Structures
1.
Amino acid sequence: MTVTSLHDLYISDEQLFPIADKVLDGKRLSIEEGMTLYRTRDMPALCRLADIVRERKVGDKAYFVHSLRLSQTNICYVGCTFCGFQRRFGEEGAWDWDLEDVWAYVDQYDHPDLTEIHISSGHHPKRPWQYYLDLVEGLNTRYPGVQVKAWTAAEIHHFTKITRPRLSYREILSQLKEVGLVALPGGGAEIFAEPVRKRIARAKVRAEDWLEIHRVAHELGIPSNATMLYGHVESLEDRLDHMIRLRQLQDEAPGFFAFIPLAFQPDNNPLAIELGRQEFTTGLDDLRNLAVARLVLDNFPHIKGYWIMITPELTQVTLAAGVSDVDGTIKDERIAHASGAVTEQGLTEAELVDLIKGAQRVPVRRDALYNELKVFA
Ligand code: V47
């Protein structure tokens, strides 16, 4: 149903009237309006508003991809406090794969529908730059037709530090593109606001550099995603500040496909211990966050509901609150699961199609660049 007037929205919170007017007129929302959206108790109206924007962008379609997660190492010297994935050399549970190990790993999961290999991992202090180029090139040669989406801006920043003389972001990204990289994942963004970033990711890429790396990637024709880690010590203002910085970058150097809020997973990591936190984010906060993102990030094609962190059941609900992408089959996810994610290691295509159809949307199997491969009408 296409909503064209305020009357059709059944809004009970009067503070939403002027915002709804703007949404119906396709006008951009301010930080203050974002705060009103976060604070409203009128969840049905918030979700309907977000859904208007979703429908305008993609109609009834909801997207997924056949994706394999690859983390070639969990050795990391950065020490982000929210991370249960990182290990030091020699520590129990550490791994660090040579290229032969990487091929053997992908061989286990290779199948005709596999479309995307999504790589993110630790900041390994010793692997040389050539290893990463060989990894991308080798994947392209061995698995033709599979697209490599790799590494987060945090890792791209790390690569500049291991090269001598030190390569620029542009040089690193150009060389990766030359050997077959097609897109960057959106990780490592965490929360841009300085006090929180200092507290949870002190030694990681700075916010300005994260944004610069994505700007350069977009300029080079490498599209990307953007994430936001929420549900720990950040404020609602911090979340909006994060989104507004992304919106500004997308205006200046377009190239983001999707925004992906990542719900803090509260196990086996120093931050959870420090906070005495064992609870996951609430379903209501997850839903609200996605709906607000859909309304604020008016220049992002997609908002992604990441079922690995918020469950497939809630992800189905988010399809009525602005979400148009559910990521994908996701074989062997390790980062969220290291911090207590309780979801399955992967869903089948049939399960994803059912999930999307159950929300009365049309499932579309896509590739890493959002080309449509199959529409399940
Ligand atoms: O960068 C780490 C986050 C990210 C925790 O681009 C945590 O399509 C929650 O980047 N609780 C990696 N989050 C995942 C990622 C991603 C995920 C889905 C889709 C895409 C995409 C990218 O996971 C890390 C970090 O921000 N993370 N630990 C935790 N305890």
2.
Amino acid sequence: MAEIFKDIKKIEYAGKNTKNPLAFRYYDADRIIMGKKMSEHLPFAMAWWHNLCAAGTDMFGRDTADKSFGTEKGTMAHAKAKVDAGFEFMQKLGIGYFCFHDVDIVPEAENINETNRRLDEITDYMLEKMKDTGIKCLWGTANMFSNPRFMNGAGSTNSLDVYCFAAAQIKKALELTVKLGGRGYVFWGGREGYETLLNTDVKFEQENIAALMKMAVEYGRSIGFTGDFYIEPKPKEPMKHQYDFDAATAIGFLRQYGLDRDFKLNIEANHATLAGHTFRHELRISAINEMLGSIDANQGDYLLGWDTDEFPYDVYESTMCMYEVLKAGGLTGGFNFDAKNRRPSNTYEDMFHAYILGMDTFALGLIKAAELIEDGELDSFVEKKYESFKGELGQRIRTGNATLAELADRAAEMGSCPTPDSGRQEYLEGIVNRVMFG
Ligand code: XUL
Ligand code: CO
């Protein structure tokens, strides 16, 4: 098999002062941070769809990059060339995992039985490569948003026939995820939402989505899938209203339908900001509900109101992300770069620059987050902030053993309420800058 990225050698760690653009400045896989190797803190994954499929087409223009990998697109030869390119790419970067949708890995046929046959063939080939390289599958999923049959939704469709096709795709994608030893299985509700209430029965649709997820859990467990199912929240795009708006909404949905034992969340940075939250907020809400599973590592653009899926370069954000992840004790999933090169960055070399940038941004974020935790000032401030609840009455409130009347009596005794202590936000922001920039 011919080498595809011929001009690019294995990317090595060369230290922060290197001017070599094809080397890591911060990602040093074996470096120990808080008792664990960087590579264990940061199980990075390549997103099949952006890296091997997307070639720059947008609403206004066609492909700018050549991702044919020397074959004809839309053929099984092309599907295999993508496997070759993907594994060479991951090996050269030292990336341990990949994520895929069913239709990323083969061209979808008119007939689902033929698509499934192609999926069997390609995953046999992927398995060989996985054995040779030690690269693993982070998660699999079914694309239930691109095909026109899903225009009214997949789990939320009005059509029983379409619902069966969604079920068939999930069944197959679960089988493939198990075959490839995937750690997780993702539901991103791309078309699960609505444009107008004039034609939508929201309750009916949400119940049907939950029923489909329940069947997926039952089937997955029956074929030996022991990993986590994930919902990946996103508030809008492609739909105006998407049901999995944000972490809190998805958690409520999972609890309402009894799916919370099998599901966690896959939090994507750009989806968080589209929902009007920080990335960090979504991670914290997931973590405190014990549902922080995996991360789609990318970043949005604060000036644009859509999902730009940029490679992350904002170290402040990656530091805050890693702070949450370290505090939560790590992820059961990993860090999937659900990110694409900008349209004019259209060479093979740009694909490597993008991943080096993303991996270094998270490595530096990890280093700085660990320094923030070791520094301890933020933690001790927060600890002290709630100290008034440490006394006898506070403890009774915390354990559900106080009454409204006795609290009101205490307020009446005091008469007027003392002003609480300062929140000291600017002081704390200064601490973050001190730790980050020294
Ligand atoms: C879309 C998105 C998806 C999911 C998987 O915004 O993030 O690629 O990650 O379906
Ligand atoms: Co995503």
